[in-house]
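Protein data:
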Amino acid sequence: MTSLNRAGRSIYLLFFVGIIAISFSSIFVRWSTADVAVIAMYRLFLTNLLMLPFVWKYRHEMMRLSLRQWGLLLASGVMLALHFLLWMGSLRLTSVASSTVILALEPILILAGSVWLFKAKINRMMIIGMGIALLGSIVIGAGDFQLAGTALQGDVLSLLGTIAVAVHMLLGQFLRAGLSAFSYNFWVFFVAACTLAVYNLIMGHPFGGYAASEWGIFLLLAIVPTIFGHYLFNWLLQYMNATTVSMGVLGEPVFSSLLAWMLLGESLSALQMSAGVVIIFGVWIFIRYGKTKPQIASTEASVAGKGPIEPTTV
């Protein structure tokens, strides 16, 4: 029991690490002057490059994918590409706080999808926790919302990007039931990168000629918010359902706003900082009272021929 509890604590620690990691994404995007589609493309291609040395270990699983799995991987990758294109584009038109707070809708969309597709069970405390966190998110971004001009365009792009990533996460929960995190992430990132490459080719965006500092930002995006963020969240789908993992985005406005205040000079009021505490409290309630005992098992068992592992309800 002690080892199980320790493993459970490790899972939630990694969940927190993922929240911190994805919070850096908006900062890195703001630092870059390249087109957002180019940033996203190289972010993903560089992630694949970093993963390449480990492909050999998973070669047998990658060769045994069914047509259905390939189809779902393609759909998940395209949705991830759309998310990056739309959400990163929103950061050029509206504030970090305003853009990230719209991502707070992601758990609601995923919860609805999980109830419909996976018959996920919810309880009153989960709803209360999500409601508290959403309220805090609204407070953080409320001062930056504008119903006109480029800010409105940015908010709309962020909303569409949120819908895209919700679909991506739901597809991921289904696929991760019988596919290792590595294989899933490698192919999804590759499909998303290729989708963005086609978009950049059509739009005539240059593929080269960027300064060394830009390539440094591309690499930082690959390492921090992609590997320690998106990859880690997709890995956690083995132990948590998609709704719980998506609750991590409710912590993103908190840390993104703090980072934007420290690194970009964006304003952050005492009310917004207080709202950050409220968000974290709401996420804690959702996870604390909405979980069952974590089943610490390895999806690699599926690769070894022991059958697919169902996603754990948390």
